[in-house]
C-alpha cells in the first residue's frame, strides 16, 4: 500500500478535492499552500486511525459508548497526541470536510455560512451554520474531557458521582481483599 498522508498536530482540516488526482486537500497550520492527495478524506481519516491502533469504526464505537453522538460523531484519531476530528456533514456526503478541533479559535457567522478562524490566523469558509459548527466543537470539547478523565482517573466522568465512586471502590475491593475481623 502506498504511503498515505500522516495526520499530525499541524493538520487543521481535510477537504474534498475536485479531481481523482486530488481527491482531498489538506490544510496545515502555518502552511501557505493546500496539500493535495489522491485518497479521499475519509480514507485518510480511516488509515490514520489504523496507524494509531484502531479503526475508524472502533474509535466511533468507543465515542458512542460514552456519548449519544450518533450523527457527525467526533473521533479521536490519536488519543496519545490529543488529535480529535469532526465531520461537517454525514460521511456519505461528498462535501464533508473534516475539522481538527484543537486548531479552531473561533467561528464567525456569515450570511451564507461560517468562517472558521484557526489559531494560526487561517480562515476557512464553509456553507454551514455557526450553530452547527459550534455544536460540533462542544461535542469535541466534551469528548476531550472524557478522554482526559479516563487517562487521569481510569474512569470516564459520570453524570452521577456516586456511580463513579462505586466503580472505584469495587476496583479497590477486588484488588485488596480485606480479612474479616476476629
Outline the structure in words:
- The chain has 182 residues and is α+β, with helices and mostly antiparallel strands.
- It has one domain.
- It contains 4 helices and 9 strands.
- A 6-stranded antiparallel sheet has the order 3-2-1-6-5-4, sandwiched between helices.
- The mean pLDDT is 87.
- This is Competence transcription factor.
- Pfam families: ComK (PF06338).
- It comes from Oceanobacillus oncorhynchi.
What is the distance, rounded to the nearest whole angstrom, between the alpha carbons of the first and last residues? 67 Å
Side-by-side strand order of the widest sheet: 3-2-1-6-5-4
Shape: globular
Structural class: alpha+beta
CA radius of gyration: 20 Å
Measured by DSSP, the beta-strand proportion falls in 15-25%
| Biggest β-sheet description | 6 strands, antiparallel
Low-confidence stretches: none
Number of DSSP helical runs: 4
- By DSSP, the count of extended strands is 9
Tally the structural domains. Answer: 1
GO biological process, one term: establishment of competence for transformation
InterPro entries: ComK
Protein name: Competence transcription factor
Organism: Oceanobacillus oncorhynchi
Amino acid at each position: 500500500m502506498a504511503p498515505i498522508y500522516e495526520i499530525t498536530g499541524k493538520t487543521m482540516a481535510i477537504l474534498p478535492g475536485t479531481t481523482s488526482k486530488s481527491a482531498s486537500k489538506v490544510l496545515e497550520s502555518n502552511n501557505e499552500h493546500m496539500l493535495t492527495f489522491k485518497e479521499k478524506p475519509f480514507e485518510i481519516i480511516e488509515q490514520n486511525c489504523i496507524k494509531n491502533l484502531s479503526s475508524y469504526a472502533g474509535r466511533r464505537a468507543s465515542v458512542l459508548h460514552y456519548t449519544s453522538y450518533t450523527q457527525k460523531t467526533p473521533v479521536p484519531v490519536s488519543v496519545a497526541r490529543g488529535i480529535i476530528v469532526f465531520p461537517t456533514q454525514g460521511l456519505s456526503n461528498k462535501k464533508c470536510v473534516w475539522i481538527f478541533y484543537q486548531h479552531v479559535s473561533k467561528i464567525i457567522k456569515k450570511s451564507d455560512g461560517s468562517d472558521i478562524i484557526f489559531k494560526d490566523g487561517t480562515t476557512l469558509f464553509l456553507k454551514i451554520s455557526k450553530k452547527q459548527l459550534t455544536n460540533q466543537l462542544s461535542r469535541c470539547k466534551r469528548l476531550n474531557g472524557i478522554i482526559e478523565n479516563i487517562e487521569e482517573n481510569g474512569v470516564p466522568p459520570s453524570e452521577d458521582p456516586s456511580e463513579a465512586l462505586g466503580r472505584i471502590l469495587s476496583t479497590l475491593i477486588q484488588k485488596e481483599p480485606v480479612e474479616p475481623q476476629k
